[in-house]
Amino acid sequence: MGRIIIVGTGFSGSILARKIAEECNRKVVVIEKRSHIGGNMYDEYDEYGILVQRYGPHFITTNKYSIVEYLEKYAEMIPHDVRLLSFVDGNFVQLPFNFRTLQQLVGAKKSETLLAKLREKFYGRDRVPIFELVESDDAEISKYGNLLFEKAYRTYTAKQWGLQPEEIDKSVLERVPMAMSFDARYINKDFQYLPRDGFTALFKNMLNYPNIELRLNTDALVHICFDDKKHIITYDGEEVELLVFTGNIDELFGLKFGRLPYRSLDICYTYERRKSILPEEIVSYPQALGYTRSTEYKKITYGIDQDIPISMIATEYPLEYDPNNEKANIPYYPVLTEESQRIYAKYLIEAKKYDNIVLCGRLAEYRYYNMDVCIEHALEKFNEIRERLEKKA
Ligand SMILES: Cc1cc2nc3c(=O)[nH]c(=O)nc-3n(C[C@H](O)[C@H](O)[C@H](O)COP(=O)(O)OP(=O)(O)OC[C@H]3O[C@@H](n4cnc5c(N)ncnc54)[C@H](O)[C@@H]3O)c2cc1C
Fold first, then answer.
1. Which tens digit of pLDDT belongs to each residue from 160-191?
2. What superfamily would CATH give domain 3-42+194-260+336-392?
3. How far apart, in whole angstroms, are the C-alpha atoms of residue 230 and residue 211?
4. CA of 119 to the centre of ligand 1 (A)
5. Domain boundaries in the chain?
6. Of 340, 165, 161, which is closest to residue 248 (Cα–Cα)?
7. What pTM does this model have?
């Protein structure tokens, strides 16, 4: 039996590490290049007791309660509906765009016929992608779709992705549909939760297991070698039985087919001596220059005294990922275009030459996974891994 190496401590890496260590009773070495565990879910308390998610706000939202139950093994989970506002034309309107937003944007009187038309046209639908409104054969619905598109989507997309909406995969834009009701929950999933003591504490519990050896501040790529003739992988010269990789797939293979594009975020913190800064925990700014949204973490922190006379907002400035730019050296979002999918396909073929590489997660599989899907997917991958390890034993 050779070594089992797991690269990355986000949900993908941490879940697989714990499952292999516990259920297969195998020793695993977990490599993480950052100084902390948790990947992009990492959070920590600041000096005022505010729990700050250092890589942007994260909430567990799922229709499967089994995901919440799984996480409850490692943390107390508390219900928390995600809420956002959008700042459009100088006013805070509800996000998701819903019937209330419609009334706010076109006025109550004008909204009456439009509401009736939307109810009839999209009867039985909970949320409808903005494109469907734009492309509607009803001129009034299409006009409203275009209004939203031009006031919010086009400008937000240009900043978030550095692309025009026409250039990006439609699935990405469909992630913020319009609610066909007054539902103010940003995401219409049935179960919305946060770990009471934060994500880092959850990951700590997950990785705290005798068979797991954790190495922080270690770039796995410095230690991994591929022998592309024998199709063998080594780590520090020792043959690897199984490599679970959750980092950037292009970097794993030395960028041999070119760099895959990712978006990064420069997150800037502003503390103010007042109890509250924003009208909601997150505000999106589609029309602002340079930044996309701000999060007031005090409003999310469980159990904090909301009356303390200080608060903070974290504002996100999207940038192109560049490992050499310290403001943009974390890959947050894969940029899904036809060209990037073509490059990704080449890396996938390369990975398949080795029968002991398991690619898992947002970066390695170059997909826009949310945590719930990422967790479920890692649990499924574990079943494959278990079968493989049992066959070899
Ligand atoms: C701003 C933002 C907000 C989000 N909000 C939500 C939300 O509210 N709800 C939701 O469900 N999802 C949300 N997501 C998605 C969520 O972040 C992902 O689903 C999740 O991070 C995927 O986990 P992962 O383990 O695949 O990847 P990651 O969390 O990116 O973990 C990969 C790990 O691998 C490490 N690594 C990479 N390369 C190497 C290397 N060479 N050597 C060693 N270590 C390496 C990295 O340092 C990192 O720790 C959000 C994403 C972003 C960017």
1. 888 887 787 777 777 789 999 999 999 999 99
2. NAD(P)-binding Rossmann-like Domain (3.40.50.720)
3. 30
4. 38
5. 3-42+194-260+336-392, 95-184
6. 340
7. 0.94
